[in-house]
Write a structure and sequence with these properties.
The structure is a homodimer of 370-residue chains.
Chain A: E1 3-10, E2 17-23, H1 29-34, E3 40-46, H2 50-61, E4 66-72, H3 81-93, E5 101-106, H4 108-120, E6 126-131, H5 134-140, E7 145-150, E8 153-160, E9 165-169, H6 178-195, H7 197-211, H8 215-235, H9 250-260, H10 267-284, H11 292-302, H12 315-322, E10 328-329, E11 332-333, E12 335-340, E13 343-347, H13 352-369
Parallel strand pairs in A: 2-9, 3-4, 3-5, 5-6, 6-9
Antiparallel strand pairs in A: 1-2, 7-8, 10-11, 12-13
Helix pairs in contact in A: 3-4, 5-6, 5-8, 6-7, 6-8, 6-10, 7-8, 9-10, 9-12, 10-11, 12-13
Chain lengths: 370, 370
């Protein structure tokens, strides 16, 4: 029996949509049917998630619909143009028309690739996000960023394309591996750091319950995260300004992911280390009290997230990869830093010397902990 | 010395943009500069057009800009995901940031692929159309449809992505091969047929001057075509309804292009034959006087366009390929027909029997003229 615990709204004019948070939503055919454009549906998932949940979603769709299932391999290394092509080719082979709705059932990779496919197929078809990982539930499924990676940079090819609805089924977190749960918690912590000190304080207290997957704690964390994200996205859909604060830790994090090879580090793990680097830089600038560093370290450690950059990554590698980041505008690297806990800002004046000092220090610390 | 002869506006709210029609606009740095987002520019062209015009555009951009030139092979057969990838890879290699503007200098293929690249690169960068063929000037450069082809269907992968400006330089038509000029005239004739009987009558009188590339006649034909297109697009940007009338002849035409292999027939040639088929079907339904058939035949012949379907194409091949068309919605093939000259409508009730009769007749006529 499905239960909707919260309904949020992402307010984007004619592109507005609801985010439902609840239990057993995957099996709720009535909610799904509200957001389908026609009788044709394509469910995109991956090899790990498909056996767990696709039959359930398919069952919820009921009779009388033409449904194509498209299953990708599991992992960030498959978030590629090649996977995009595979989806598009299957849609063409099965003669899906423009009235098709693509339903993404899986984590951030599935949602990002399927969403980009929805944006491109016949110049745009309907799209519903059914995120089954914590990271996708609190971050990537809301806001309309879709993309694939390129060997020269993460998320470099994509579209802003809003879903018609997001269905967050908390029950799906019961099958999530611990490492993936932790990766999702990194993005949850991010919201506290960038714009909600009370939430940041709550997380320090609630972390054991979140790791124990207590339903009420998870629902609270997801609802707060999605509300904060929805507000930021509504104010700045295409990242003209404010939305960039959601990228706290991401410029460093993307460099780690790209250098290690997509899939070696989880996105949330790389973001955790990146947030700590951004906090250290903010402290070095005198913007945040140095006492906040051990607080964040303790929280990340509690969430079972890494604190140090990967062995072997030099400042040169970081600077080279960060120079390719989307946050570079007219030659200036833009970084998200903190003016205080809960107060993010975007700077374009980070000097190479400043970054080099930060990264040399990070290399030394990573070595000393090995 | 550049001269702006007409400035039209495509009215799409915050996505509105001007269409400039004039002489020597390619060399007008001031007009270009008005629509650049930053100091970074990528010019996308093809092997045929690049030697003629890219240096001119580059010169007009002046000093102090970082410019990357990307040259594709010439032809519809290169309107592929592969060409898209090539553009995106070059942009990444040259570290183009999100403030880059992509300028498409060429025909419809260059504009469609470069526009799709602009839509996808870092989820969207600035885009300026500089169409150098008549077909691109009167049709594909205005309205924001971008796409690449797939072996299973034409324009199946793409985006609605509006340019920031369209610069139509009539001088560039002096280097256009005669066959390409004729292909462009097919789309010009289309506007008369779907919504402007006076323009249709004018074309019958002006055709010799258009073929002789008389500047004033070309400027008039381009201005009328772009105005009609801008009005239709402003009323229905994403082809929810009205915009579909711009596809007169295109469902038949796409089947011809796909069956013959992209590039064998020019798009305008296939559309010419397709328009005649749509007119014949409209006559068969009793909606248009049969006397209009020889009128259109004479006009197409005068414009040096084909009248018959390619040898070897059977009704079965047509019906199979048309069934894959984007105009199929929930299993119904939608076709643009005429209620009269200058009055297009979209029908969803064409029967297989009706189409089979039309296409059998077309096969017989093609044979008898061989």
């Amino acid at each position: 029996m499905s239960v909707i615990m919260h309904t949020l709204h992402v307010d984007l004019g004619e592109r507005s949509y609801p985010v439902y948070i609840g239990r057993d939503l995957l099996a709720d055919g009535e909610v799904l049917a509200r957001h389908l454009g026609g009788s044709e549906v394509a469910i995109v998932s991956n090899e790990t998630v498909a056996p767990l949940y696709v039959a359930k979603v398919r069952g919820a769709l009921g009779e009388g619909r033409r449904v194509t299932e498209i299953v990708l391999p599991d992992g960030e290394q498959y978030k590629t143009l090649h996977s995009l092509e595979h989806i598009l080719e299957r849609l063409l082979q099965e003669r899906h028309s423009r009235s098709t709705t693509i339903i993404a059932v899986g984590g951030g990779v599935v949602g990002d690739v399927a969403g980009f496919a929805a944006a491109c197929y016949q110049r745009g078809v309907g799209f519903i996000q059914v995120p089954t990982t914590l990271l996708a539930q609190v971050d990537s499924s809301v806001g309309g960023k879709t993309a694939v990676n390129h060997p020269l940079g993460k998320n470099m090819i994509g579209a802003f394309y809003q879903p018609r609805a997001v269905l967050i089924d908390i029950d799906s977190l019961h099958t999530l591996p611990a490492r993936e749960l932790s990766a999702g918690l990194a993005e949850v912590i991010k919201y506290g750091l960038i714009c909600d000190p009370a939430f940041y304080a709550w997380l320090q207290e609630a972390m054991p319950r979140l790791l124990a997957r207590e339903e009420s704690a998870l629902a609270e964390a997801i609802e707060r995260s999605c509300s904060l994200k929805a507000a930021v996205v509504a104010a700045d859909e295409r990242e003209g300004g404010l939305r960039a604060i959601l990228n706290l830790g991401h410029t460093f994090g993307h460099a780690i992911e790209t250098a290690q090879g997509y899939g070696a580090w989880l996105h949330g793990e790389a973001v955790a280390v990146g947030m700590l680097l951004a906090l250290r830089l903010s402290v070095a600038r005198g913007w945040v009290d140095a006492a906040e560093i051990p607080v964040l370290e303790a929280l990340l450690r509690q969430a079972q997230l890494p604190l140090e950059i990967p062995a072997g990554m030099t400042p040169e590698v970081f600077l080279d990869l960060m120079g390719r980041d989307k946050k570079v505008v007219d030659g200036c690297l833009r970084l998200v830093l903190l003016r205080g806990i809960g107060e993010a800002c975007v700077v374009a004046d980070a000097t190479t010397a400043e970054l080099d000092t930060l990264l040399q220090d990070a290399v030394a610390r990573a070595k000393s902990r090995c």
